[in-house]
Amino acid sequence: MSISSTLVDRAEIEFHEAADAIRPFVGCFWVMTAKRDATIRVVPDGSTAISIQLQKGHTAEWLDELRFTSEAQLVGIRLRPGVAFLLNRTPAHTIVGRRIALNEVAAFRDLVAESPRAHPLTPEHCIDVLQRFLVQRLADARLHCVVADALHEIEHAHGCILATDVAARCRVSPRHLHRLMRTWVGYGPKSYANIIRFQTTLHSMEHVPSPTAAALATDNGYFDQAHLTLDVARFSGATPGRLASVGVTDFSKTRCDDLP
Fold first, then answer.
1. CA dihedral of 178, 184, 185, 187, whole degrees rounded to 10
2. CA distance 20 to 88
3. DSSP H or E stretch at residue 112
4. Are 134 and 77 in contact (CB under 8 A)?
5. Which run of H or E residues covers position 204?
6. What global pTM score does this model have?
């Protein structure tokens, strides 16, 4: 489990729709088949990923990247911001930037115990167990109303909004909002807004043919091209030009928001 989305290379992804009962809380289920030397680079988007590796391919792991030294298959699902806290009540800021084994989290031990023991494991088995677990745990669940409002305000503004303005619209103090957001989402409102602006920029890079860095900066609320380049490099480890040429399409597929 980790708070992340990913930029992938040399991996194929299949998508599976989630049950209606949990769609407000999740993106979709995905099955990723990684070739030898495939890489999965973690970039922040405020969501939490739960994944299960089926074929036990060997991996070399760094803080922000996973490289497969043999073929492997993973199954997972993306939880929307705040949902991980609904499930386990562990403050989200304590798991930002970390990968945590599910059996180390009390709320997920039942899931581990219910995981299929069939050999070999199949994606269908894993998706079924994950879905039944989430349907049961998220029945009648709700995000904190202030957190839900803050997420809406930040996402509606594409990240181009001051934290003080978000707090004012949510009718709470900036300090109270910061504390709630860190607990539920993992980031304060300012940091989350920066992430959403970065995500919006990636979306622009995918849908606008050959955008210039200057145009991207202007359209997405950056001070200038240098500000854009610094932010994109900080979050993705690559320049805007590099992402536009090799990575954005693969990256956006893992967000699972636009399933046909």
1. 30
2. 22
3. helix 109-114
4. yes
5. helix 189-207
6. 0.86
